[in-house]
Amino acid sequence: MRRSVAALTVVALLSVVVGNAQGVVQYTLTDLGPLAGNDAHGINLSGQVVGGRTFPGGYHAFAYGGGVMADLGTLQGNHQYSFATDLNDLGQIVGYSVIDLNPSNTLSQRPFLYTGGAMTAIGSFGGGYGFANGINNLGQVVGLSRYGNGVTHAFLYSSGTMTDLGGFEGTGGYSCAYGINEQTQVVGNSTLNGRDRGFLWQNGTMTDLGDLVGGSGNTRAYAINNSAQVVGNTWGNDPSDYNAFVWQNGTMTNLGPGVAEGINDSGVAVGSNPNGLFVWDSVNGLQNANYLLDSSAAGWALYGARDINNVGQIAGWGAHPSGEIHGVLLTPVPEPSAVILLLLGAAGLLAYAGRRKRDAAPAEK
């Protein structure tokens, strides 16, 4: 996606202010609640976190921001389950919710988009099952949906239209999309000859990302930033023997045992490994976040992370000093400055405005 001169200037400033400031970081910890099943899954530029947790009415999608935990409800009030997987910088949230397939009254699961205080199902390929995994600042959503014949494929939802992204096995097989960036580059995994293969999809073409075991292994890709850096995990014949990776331009970097699930535009990746929640960047390498917490987080044990935003805030989970598993929000110390937040916000809005302007322009003849 081409950007305006103004947007490129903002991005260049951010590279200096944020990207070159990488170093050993200390974090404060915000506890997102004591209830069992709390999972912090996505985070945006404002530090809003989404996921799923137990509320009095059931296990529901939540949105946390400014000290307030909001219950997002479900697509149908008589059912008790929903989960939020991601949100963008405009506060639009995606996930999935259980619904009834009337008149049979059988249960199904549908992807949703939550915006303007309302949760709306975003459609399906006809099979009554699906979920949304990612959303960008253009409001484009990715996930998976099932056809009536049982085939499940990755989708891209944009401007009210759901597009099948296909898979490595054509009209059959399986594919799932997990992440999308502002250039509409999508990552996920698809079956090929009985194995999972991580993919990068762009402009109608799905590319195999490879693996770390000589081409015969399995790979899943979970997130992609705006420099087309991809994170995920890869394994061989033993699914328990898996390694996290960062992929860029055909090269896969091994981060050791674990799973990488989030990466920001400065190339900082987060995930989980046998030692707990890790943070990785090309300057400092792999770091255990348990050794990066300030004194106010004494007694916590961090287990893993799902996402990281462009000012370095992390959405993850760990054991509270009481032993309960909680979702957590980690914030760098010192907290992101107002200048950085302003620059990041301007970059996102300029990119969004530019794309909207192009979409509204008449096609060339």
Report on this model:
With 365 residues, the protein is mainly β. It has 2 helices and 28 strands. The strands form 7 sheets. It has a 4-stranded antiparallel beta sheet with strand order 1-28-27-26, with no helix packed on it. A hairpin with a 5-residue loop joins strand 2 and strand 3. Helix 1 packs antiparallel against helix 2. The longest helix is centred in the last third of the chain and has 23 residues.
Task: Describe the protein's topology.
Layout lengths: L4 H13 L8 E6 L7 E5 L5 E7 L2 E8 L2 E4 L10 E6 L5 E9 L4 E10 L2 E4 L4 E10 L5 E7 L4 E7 L2 E4 L10 E6 L5 E7 L2 E8 L2 E4 L9 E7 L5 E6 L6 E7 L2 E7 L1 E5 L5 E5 L2 E6 L3 E4 L12 E8 L5 E6 L5 E9 L4 H23 L5
Antiparallel strand pairs: 1-28, 2-3, 3-4, 4-5, 6-7, 7-8, 8-9, 10-11, 11-12, 12-13, 14-15, 15-16, 16-17, 18-19, 19-20, 20-21, 22-23, 23-24, 24-25, 26-27, 27-28
What's this, in brief?
Helix 1 packs antiparallel against helix 2. Helix content is 10%, strand content 50%. By secondary structure, it is mostly beta strands.
Helix/strand order: HEEEEEEEEEEEEEEEEEEEEEEEEEEEEH
Let me know the number of strands. Answer: 28
Residues in helices, as a percent range: under 10%
Radius of gyration: 20 Å
- Hey, roughly how much beta strand do the residues contain? over 45%
Largest beta-sheet characterization? 4 strands, antiparallel
Order of strands across the widest beta sheet? 1-28-27-26
What structural class results from the helix and strand content?
mainly beta
End-to-end Cα distance: 21 Å
Query: What is the general shape?
Result: globular
Question: Which residue ranges are poorly predicted, with pLDDT under 50 across at least 5 consecutive positions?
Answer: 1-21, 351-365
Q: Report mean pLDDT, rounded to a whole number.
A: 86
Tally of separate helices:
2
